[in-house]
Amino acid sequence: MSYKVAVVGATGNVGREMLNVLHERQFPVSEIIPLASRRSIGQEVTFGDKTIKTKCLDDFDFSGVDICLMSAGGSVSKAWSEKIGAQGCVVIDNSSYFRMDPDVPLVVPEVNAEDIAGYKKKNIIANPNCSTAQLMVALKPLHDRAKIKRVVVSTYQSVSGSGKAAMDELWTQTRAIFVNDPVENEVYPKQIAFNVIPHIDVFMDNGDTKEEWKMVAETAKILDPDIKLTATCVRVPVFIGHSESVNIEFHNPLSDDEARDILRQSPGVMVVDKREDGGYVTPVEAAGEFATYISRIRRDETVKHGLNLWCVSDNLLKGAALNAVQIAESLCNNFLRKA
To answer: Candidates 1.10.1840.10, 1.10.1200.120, 2.40.128.590, 3.30.360.10; correct CATH number of 131-315?
Structure first.
């Protein structure tokens, strides 16, 4: 069985990755339709060895489409996702707009694929925030074994999470510093080249940023509302790949050796944890890879049952495009065929 698939936002970083992942994972596509705004009509994108011109979202009829991968931002999703769903097409939305909607499943397939069953309420499934997605892959198998009580996470998030303009800004600022030109910033409130910025998304009344709030709220919805989580989210001068320093407190005992063994057997996880120079994964190695990499697994001796670990993943893949395609795969394998 094959499916007609539309990709909204096909000319963006994540949209292009969605097309690549669909082809690389041999998703059963009968027809692929790249869609974008009016200003991007006719731009070419690739799907395998095919070059396809984008069509306009505003004029497109979704009545014959099975799945729509939505990657054009919250305002576009707000305007279009429910309309598309009403035409019988299942929307897998990469924006934050529907994540906390009680009628919309928020899914990381390695963690809560069974929640996809709730998609029929609105014909929408939400993709989580990029920093949350990789964290859930790491936490789920450990939570199943020892039950997580509390998590403290610090993120080191690449500029690609802010889009192409942010990647360009890192490049131009870096060049400007080397040639002694003025350093200008437009995307970020402060210089990002050779710097780190402890500020992602808008500030909230309690002092958290919205990115930090997302990690708390999405962990509760995806994994377990009883887990206490606190986050500090930091933008770093890395082009692709988010990293996380994770401190976990459990209700039950779990040794670092047992955690290592559990993670090695867990879906979507690759453990690279040698206690030697270079025996860990950095964003450079994770870029372009499907796995979520775990390193630096060790005991936290300051609490009764505690572990530390280092988690790295390609934010454009597991944090966005790959997770969306995995949702589509599970949807087709377990739910659409039963309709």
So the answer is: 3.30.360.10
